[in-house]
Design goal:
Number of strands: 5
Structural class: alpha+beta
Number of helices: 5
Largest sheet: 3 strands, antiparallel
Strand order of the largest sheet: 4-3-5
Distance between the termini: 12 Å
């Protein structure tokens, strides 16, 4: 669930126009008449990541459960591609129980580890999934 959550967040971040910015800082006027406002890239800003965390778990309905035939280990995989291409759905369990339990797990992780998710995703870091989902949580 954590890995699916990070995948969705990273995909959403990649879809933001790199030229889009957001104003950060204080909107108060300084004694000299200037303002302490800076423009920062919108993608990976705290406002952007907070907004994504509020709605990303809705994407879990696009996932199904796959069981590895050799190890019998369960994993969640996307059943609907981001770009609409057809996907291989063989050996996939896709029903309301799977999606609702994945959505619940996603919401629990997003709520409990919101600060860590924002911390890791605010910088383009390597291996966010491993660092966050295996080591931190």
């Amino acid at each position: 669930a954590c890995r699916a959550l990070v995948d969705e967040l990273e995909w959403e971040i990649s879809q933001v126009d790199p030229r889009k910015t957001i104003q950060m800082g204080s909107f108060r006027i300084n004694p000299d008449g200037s303002q302490s406002v800076v423009e920062v890239p919108y993608a990976r800003s705290e406002a952007h990541l907070t907004e994504l965390l509020e709605r990303v778990c809705e994407k879990m309905k696009e996932y199904g459960e796959k069981v590895d035939p050799a190890t019998h280990r369960k994993s969640y995989v996307r059943v609907i591609s981001h770009d609409g291409t057809k996907m291989d759905l063989s050996g996939l369990k896709f029903d309301g129980d799977v999606t609702s339990s994945l959505k619940f797990a996603c919401e629990s992780i997003a709520e409990e580890y919101e600060d860590e998710l924002i911390e890791f995703l605010s910088h383009e870091a390597e291996n966010v999934k491993d660092r966050l989902c295996s080591k931190r949580t």
